[in-house]
Amino acid sequence: MLKANQTLDDRRFEERRKDQRRQSQNGSENDNSRADRRSLERRTKERRKD
Fold first, then answer.
1. What confidence tens digit (pLDDT) does each residue in 12-42 have?
2. DSSP readout, 4-29?
3. C-alpha torsion 36→42→47→50, nearest 10
4. Could you tell me if 23 and 30 are in contact, meaning their C-beta atoms sit under 8 angstroms apart?
5. What stretch of H or E contains 34?
6. Whole-model pTM?
């Protein structure tokens, strides 16, 4: 049975693979993922301020 942190790492790995796959596809999808990442970065920065 997997430990909780192992499953979390696996999930992160899967997300990273999905992002890489998205980047290798066409430019419009690339722009969308880039915008998603930008909003995610903004959210994490705001969270760090608190």
1. 888 988 887 776 665 555 566 677 778 888 8
2. HHHHHHHHHHHHHHHHHHHHHS-HHH
3. -160
4. yes
5. helix 27-49
6. 0.32
